[in-house]
Design goal:
With 232 residues, this protein is α+β, with helices and mostly antiparallel strands. The chain has six helices and eight strands. Strands 1-2-7-5-6-4-3-8 form an eight-stranded antiparallel β-barrel.
Length: 232
C-alpha cells in the first residue's frame, strides 16, 4: 500500500476547509434584497412625515377630506319633478343641507316619490306633498288666519323654495313643501334644501286648482317620477 506524504495530506486538508466562493447571481440577488429593504424604509418614512405635516395644519391637502369632498360634488345637484301638470326643475342645496339632500336623493333612487300626490294646495302659500296627509308645519299658520295677511320677505323662505318639515325625520318618510310666496313664519319649522329654477308656471298652475275647506285638491295631482341630474 502506497504511503501518503505528510505535505500531501496538509494540502488536501486546506482544500476541504477553505471557504466556498459566492456565485455572481447570488450576489446580485442579495443586492436587490438589500435595495428593496432600504426603499421600503424610505417610503414608510416619507408617508409618516407627510401625515405629520398635514396634521400640523400647513395647508397641504388631506386625502380623506379630498375624498369626501369629491364624493359630495359627484352627487346629482338637480332634480326634475315630473308632475301631472308638468315638470318642475329644482336645484338642490348640497352644501347648505347635505343630510336632507342625501336622504332625498336616496329616496328618489328607490322610486319613493313615484305616484305620490300633493295632499294640500294653499294659494299664496305653498303646495304640500309627501307621506303625511296632515298639514304639519302649515297647520299653525293657517289656524291663526294669516293666509290673506301681508307677508314680509324672508331671505330664507322666499317663493319657490323646496323644503321639508323639521319634525318629520323618519328614514322611510319624507314631506315636500314648495312655497309660492315668502313665508317668514315657517323659518323654525321647515328645512330648505332646494329652489325651483324652472317650472314656476307649473307650480302656479297647481296652486290654482280647486280645493275643499281643508285645502285638499278635488282632483288628484301626482308626482309621476323624479329624475336626478348633475347638470340641467
Amino acid at each position: 500500500m502506497a504511503r501518503i506524504k505528510p505535505q500531501t495530506l496538509l494540502l488536501q486538508s486546506k482544500k476541504k476547509k477553505g471557504p466556498s466562493r459566492v456565485s455572481v447571481p447570488m450576489m446580485i440577488l442579495y443586492g436587490l434584497f438589500i435595495g428593496l429593504v432600504i426603499f421600503s424604509l424610505f417610503a414608510t418614512y416619507r408617508h409618516w412625515s407627510r401625515r405629520s405635516v398635514e396634521r400640523m395644519g400647513t395647508g397641504l391637502p388631506n386625502f380623506e377630506d379630498t375624498y369626501v369632498d369629491s364624493k359630495k360634488y359627484d352627487l346629482p345637484g338637480f332634480a326634475i319633478l315630473n308632475t301631472s301638470k308638468g315638470a318642475i326643475f329644482v336645484e338642490l342645496f348640497k352644501d347648505n343641507a347635505p343630510e336632507i339632500v342625501d336622504k332625498f336623493l336616496d329616496l328618489c333612487q328607490k322610486g319613493h316619490f313615484k305616484g305620490m300626490p300633493f295632499h294640500h294646495v294653499i294659494k299664496h302659500y305653498l303646495i304640500h306633498g309627501g307621506d303625511s296627509e296632515g298639514l304639519g308645519a302649515a297647520e299653525d299658520w293657517i289656524s291663526r288666519g294669516k293666509l290673506r295677511g301681508k307677508l314680509v320677505t324672508s331671505p330664507k323662505h322666499e317663493a319657490f323654495t323646496l323644503g321639508t318639515s323639521k319634525s318629520k325625520q323618519d328614514s322611510k318618510k319624507f314631506e315636500l313643501f314648495i312655497t309660492t310666496a315668502p313665508i317668514p313664519d315657517l323659518n323654525e319649522k321647515l328645512i330648505v334644501f332646494g329652489r325651483v329654477i324652472k317650472g314656476q308656471d307649473v307650480v302656479q298652475e297647481i296652486e290654482e286648482v280647486d280645493t275643499d275647506e281643508r285645502y285638499r285638491p278635488k282632483s288628484n295631482i301626482l308626482i309621476k317620477d323624479v329624475i336626478l341630474k348633475r347638470e340641467v
